[in-house]
Structures are given as structure tokens and as C-alpha cells.
């Protein structure tokens, strides 16, 4: 799936990264807890969240997250958008709730991230 398809499925608007709409994504993760994102996310993932703060961008940068979808119509600050553009993360705003956006992406074929196996 591409970021463009993600944008269309979540009825979103691109805020930053229109030049990256044809980049591929492999999985999606919906969470407002960045500790969970750190535990489960891989690269080329779409993060769907209602959390609007710079920590979301820092976490996304560390994990090579391709795209962030801010749910529930939430809009990040201009400072956050500039930061996202600098680090190469596409930002989309969606009117959908996190749950609905995740469900729509899943039924359109984008799998969730897999739970890490337990350590022995």
C-alpha cells in the first residue's frame, strides 16, 4: 500500500510530505502510548495516533516510521510540521477516530505490526 492510498482510506488531508505520497508502507500501528510504539513498530509503518506532541515525531524518527496519521481531526503545530518535514515523515490529518482509521486500513489490506516474541 502507498501513503496516498492510506490518505484516501482514512479520508485524510496531507499536511506535510506530498512528495512522498507514492512511498510504500508495510504495516500500521494505532497507539497514543509511545512506549507501545517503541515495543511493536518496525520501519515503513503508518502510525495512527491522537497524541499531538513532539515526542511522537522523535519516536517516529527513531523507528523509521514513514507516515503519521493524526486522528480525530487533531492538527499538530507548525513547529511539529516543520520538524516532520525535516526528518522526512509524511503527516496526514484524519477526521476518523484512531479505532476507525485502523479498522479501515486493516480491511483494505494493511496489516498491523506483529507482537514481538517473548524472550526466553
Describe the structure.
This protein is an alpha/beta fold. It has a single domain (3-107), classed as Udp-n-acetylmuramoylalanyl-d-glutamate--2,6- Diaminopimelate Ligase, Chain: A, domain 1, CATH 3.40.1390. The chain is built from five helices and five strands, in the order αββαβαβαβα. The chain has helices at residues 3-9, 34-40, 54-62, 78-87, 98-107, and strands at residues 13-16, 27-30, 45-49, 67-70, 90-93. Strands 1-5-4-3-2 form a five-stranded mixed β-sheet. β4, α4 and β5 form a beta-alpha-beta unit. The longest helix has 10 residues, at 78-87. The chain starts with a helix and ends in a 13-residue tail after the last helix.
**Global outline:** globular
Q: How many structural domains in the coordinates?
A: 1
Strand content: 15-25%
Order of strands, main sheet, comes to: 1-5-4-3-2
Catalogue the unreliable spans.
Answer: none
* Count of distinct strands: 5
| End-to-end C-alpha gap | 34 Å
What is the N-to-C order of secondary-structure elements (H for helix, E for strand)? HEEHEHEHEH
Number of helices: 5
Tell me, rounded to a whole number, the average pLDDT.
Answer: 92
Query: What is the CATH third-level topology name?
Result: Udp-n-acetylmuramoylalanyl-d-glutamate--2,6- Diaminopimelate Ligase, Chain: A, domain 1
CATH superfamily: HprK N-terminal domain-like
Give structural attributes.
120 residues, alpha/beta, Udp-n-acetylmuramoylalanyl-d-glutamate--2,6- Diaminopimelate Ligase, Chain: A, domain 1, five-stranded mixed sheet, 5 helices, 5 strands, globular
